[in-house]
Amino acid sequence: MKRTSLSGAPCPIARSLDELGDWWTLLIVREALRGARRFSDFQKKLGLARNILSARLKQMVANGLFEQRPAIEGGARAEYHLTDKGMRLRLVMAALRQWGEDNLFEGEQSSTVLVETATGRPIGRLQLTSEDGRPLRVDEVSIASRIPGE
Predict the structure, then answer these.
(1) What pTM did the predictor assign?
(2) Containing structural domain, residue 94
(3) Residues 24, 46: contact at Cβ < 8 Å?
(4) What is the C-alpha to C-alpha distance for residues 110 and 150, in angstroms, rounded to an integer?
(5) Considering the domain boundaries, does residue 118 fall inside one?
(6) Which CA distances in Å does 70 have to 40, 74, 75?
(7) Does a structural domain hold residue 125?
(8) Closest CA to 66 of 78, 57, 74
(9) Tally of structural domains, the chain
């Protein structure tokens, strides 16, 4: 089945999903945030077939999520580095992680924890806020059309 492009959709969620493509994208980003840089690092951590990983990384470079750089020690090998656009997925990953912690782990099931690098302490819960910074409940938020220029 041919995939329909959502790149021109008026919904930011649809456009984001069109850009990200599939769940492998976020898992590749997760590994990059953990320090993976080389094709072999991603393959080892994810157990993904070479052809699928190659295609996904190529698309992520084309979409501006990664950039390829020569390996530090030289040679023909390249490394994959998240761009600023790719690094901004960290917030999406944190939100998805917290949703998973809240909804997909039972009782005392073990999981990893997201911590502040400088202190090693867990980060606070993400929350929706108003323009002036007031915390909002989920039921206080709705979707409205935005008119360009306003």
Answers:
(1) 0.85
(2) 1-112
(3) yes
(4) 46
(5) no
(6) 15, 6, 8
(7) no
(8) 57
(9) 1
The DSSP element (H or E) to which 79 belongs, if any, is: strand 78-82
Taking each helix axis from N to C end, the angle separating 23-33 and 50-62, rounded to the nearest 10 degrees, works out to 80
Phi, then psi, of 129 in degrees rounded to 5: -135, 155
Closest to 26 in 3D by CA, of 95, 124, 78: 95
Confirm whether 75 is domain-assigned: yes
**Rounded to whole angstroms, how far apart are CA atoms 115 and 55?**
32
pLDDT at site 117: 93
**Residues forming a β-bridge with 135:** 129
One digit per residue, the tens of pLDDT, for the chain of length 150 reads: 667 888 878 888 888 988 887 889 999 999 999 999 999 999 999 999 999 999 999 999 999 999 999 988 877 789 999 999 999 999 999 999 999 988 888 877 878 888 999 999 999 999 999 999 999 999 999 998 877 776
Task: Reduce the DSSP state of residue 70 to 3 states and report it.
Answer: strand
Q: Is residue 45 part of a domain?
A: yes
**Who contacts 145 (Cβ-Cβ below 8 Å, separation ≥6)?**
10
